[in-house]
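Summary of Year 1 activities. Much of the first year was spent building the evaluation harness for sequence design. The harness presents a backbone, in tokenized form, and records the residue chosen at every position. We chose the following record to illustrate the format because it has been used consistently in internal testing since the harness was completed.
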């Protein structure tokens, strides 16, 4: 060994020999011993897990069941004789990630010194609305669920591996108590550890979390309207008198944003046609939300001219809207013009689907297909739900004549924004509760008007963020003025004009009109939509405004489920006894998708609600 290496070895020996043994031990600690996490990051993760299983929820639960059953859309290609029979479905996944996360935050805080606990109560408080939000969605589908004993196994000895199910009545009471406790903490957050930008919803503003807790209370109250009306109205009065306030402006809305690289489901959807009666109602009132909920059909001026050139008839509900010049060519649009002339729905009853007179809706490849320049194309004359509301990576090719230009909306992938709660929703609930007799400071009309205004503006903001096709322009039109006129963005004065329509005046049929507005507002939050349709009986059969279309097959009325199927407990499951007890107490037949059973065996909150289409109680 040379002298240089001996010298280096000597220096290292002296260095390590002089090291403090405690420091050495600290640097070489047991790898199984982990340092305490920063709970602010744990909260960020919990917020991320509030919204999960988005693909199965949209592909199955929403587009195959909730939207068709509530008459927003049909299933793909129109409702058939078994569209009311359930298959696979999705729900919010809360047990694998969310509950362990929220429980860990609470338990770690409870194990801290009194001083550290005192500064972290707000962190603990927001774990309650974080887990109640998806849990409410799940109980809307199947009722009883594990909640109060969920996630306790790591903190119990012996581990609690057989948690009991809470009934829906118990869930609502537990949640109201938890929300009241959270509101109290979140309303006074001086000296609390701030989340700042780790809070991707409200950027650390705990006062807005308190307002959101009050919205969750209103959601629960709405589900109690026919179960315990006095309690529902009392909750509404608590909310409006709460020092914390409630969601009452666009900046208060709970807009879920998972991150800059979250674009939604990623995969395509099977989306049905918009319900003709709903589309006609929105069109008649020129409600801007029509443009933000549904996507325009393919019949722009260029496509209309292509049909004229091919000598092929236009769809019978489009042809009367076309203005022709002296040579019989497309000159413009009659009636309200673009973009309104591009919105046409289809009937929703299975018998209507089978009626040859409706082939123009349900056999469009036979009627709306033309050939030119060696190219054949089929054009859709009806409208679909906006797929860009579920995934922003969806590319769209604008309709042009066969062999014509290729104009695409692509590579515009903004992070997806999703509504989990809004000021519009809060005010529309308050309109309902005021109409039902709650002692609230404003009139039902005031709450409704503000709720509708907020609903339209929020839908417009979502459309802008998610970059819906046609939002800023219709690029098929070469004339700049027409391209702008055909765009779907919100114009000045539209909301004021909307609210002047008789369908928005509560002096007659006020409760039905309020429920119609809730119905329209909830088309981005399908769980709330289904809860509203079940508890309100709206859309109402024979309505002068928006009428329920009777579902019939071979002339027979069809039962529509009021809950999702519940799996059959099996003895090999460690929690078999509690599962069995839960379904027995609810009176549910398990594992059977029979729509007659799913219609008759209702959830607890739904037992006293009106039949579909029967109107409000």
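For this record, the design step produced the sequence shown next.
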């Amino acid at each position: 060994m040379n002298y240089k290496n001996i010298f280096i070895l000597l220096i290292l020996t002296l260095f390590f020999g002089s090291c403090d043994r405690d420091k050495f031990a600290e640097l070489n600690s047991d790898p199984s011993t982990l340092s305490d996490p920063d709970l602010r990051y744990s909260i960020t993760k919990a917020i991320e897990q509030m919204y999960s299983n988005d693909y199965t929820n949209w592909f199955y639960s929403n587009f195959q069941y909730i939207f068709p059953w509530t008459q927003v859309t049909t299933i793909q290609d129109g409702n058939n004789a078994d569209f009311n029979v359930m298959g696979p479905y999705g729900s919010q996944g809360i047990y694998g990630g969310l509950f362990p996360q929220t429980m860990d935050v609470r338990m770690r805080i409870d194990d801290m010194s009194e001083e550290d606990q005192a500064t972290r109560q707000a962190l603990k408080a927001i774990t309650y609305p974080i887990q109640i939000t998806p849990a409410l969605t799940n109980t809307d589908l199947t009722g009883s669920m594990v909640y109060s004993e969920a996630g306790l196994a790591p903190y119990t000895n012996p581990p609690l591996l057989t948690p009991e199910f809470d009934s829906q009545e118990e869930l609502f009471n537990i949640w109201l108590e938890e929300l009241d406790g959270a509101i109290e903490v979140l309303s006074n957050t001086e000296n609390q550890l701030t989340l700042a930008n780790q809070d991707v919803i409200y950027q650390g503003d705990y006062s807005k979390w308190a307002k959101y807790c009050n919205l969750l209370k209103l959601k629960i109250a709405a589900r109690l309207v026919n179960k315990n009306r006095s309690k529902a109205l009392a909750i509404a009065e608590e909310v409006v008198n709460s020092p914390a306030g409630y969601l009452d402006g666009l900046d208060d809305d709970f807009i879920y944003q998972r991150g800059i690289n979250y674009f939604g489901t990623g995969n395509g959807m099977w989306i049905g046609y918009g319900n003709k009666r709903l589309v006609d109602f929105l069109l008649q009132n020129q409600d801007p939300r029509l443009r933000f909920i549904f996507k325009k059909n393919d019949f722009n001026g260029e496509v209309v001219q292509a049909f004229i050139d091919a000598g092929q008839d236009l769809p019978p509900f489009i042809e009367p809207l076309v203005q022709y010049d002296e040579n019989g060519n497309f000159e413009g649009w009659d009636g309200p013009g673009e973009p309104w002339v591009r919105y046409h729905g289809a009937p929703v009853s299975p018998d209507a689907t089978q009626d040859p007179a409706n082939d123009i809706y349900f056999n469009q490849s036979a009627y709306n297909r033309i050939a030119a320049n060696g190219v054949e194309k089929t054009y859709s004359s009806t409208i679909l739900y906006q797929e860009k509301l579920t995934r922003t990576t969806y590319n769209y090719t604008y309709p042009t004549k066969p062999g014509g230009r290729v104009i695409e909306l692509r590579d515009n992938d903004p992070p997806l924004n999703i509504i989990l709660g809004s000021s519009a929703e809060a005010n529309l609930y308050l309109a309902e509760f005021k109409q039902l007799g709650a002692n609230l400071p404003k009139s039902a009309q005031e709450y409704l008007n503000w709720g509708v205004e907020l609903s339209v503006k929020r839908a417009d903001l979502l459309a802008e963020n998610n970059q819906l096709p046609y939002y800023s322009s219709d690029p098929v039109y070469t004339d700049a003025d027409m391209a702008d006129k055909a765009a779907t963005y919100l114009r000045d004065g539209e909301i004021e004009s909307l609210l002047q329509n008789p369908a928005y005046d509560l002096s007659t049929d006020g409760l039905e009109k309020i429920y119609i507005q809730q119905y329209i507002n909830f088309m981005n939050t399908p769980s709330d939509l289904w809860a509203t349709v079940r508890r309100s009986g709206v859309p109402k059969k024979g309505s002068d405004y928006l009428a329920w279309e009777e579902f019939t097959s071979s002339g027979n009325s069809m039962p529509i489920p009021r809950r999702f199927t519940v799996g059959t407990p099996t003895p090999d499951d460690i929690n078999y006894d509690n599962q069995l007890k839960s379904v027995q107490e609810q009176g549910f037949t398990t594992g059977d998708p029979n729509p007659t059973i799913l219609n008759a065996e209702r959830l607890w909150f739904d037992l006293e609600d009106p039949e579909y289409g029967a109107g409000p109680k």
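The chain has two domains: 39-53+91-246, 276-558. Quantitative recovery figures across the full test set are reported in Table 2.
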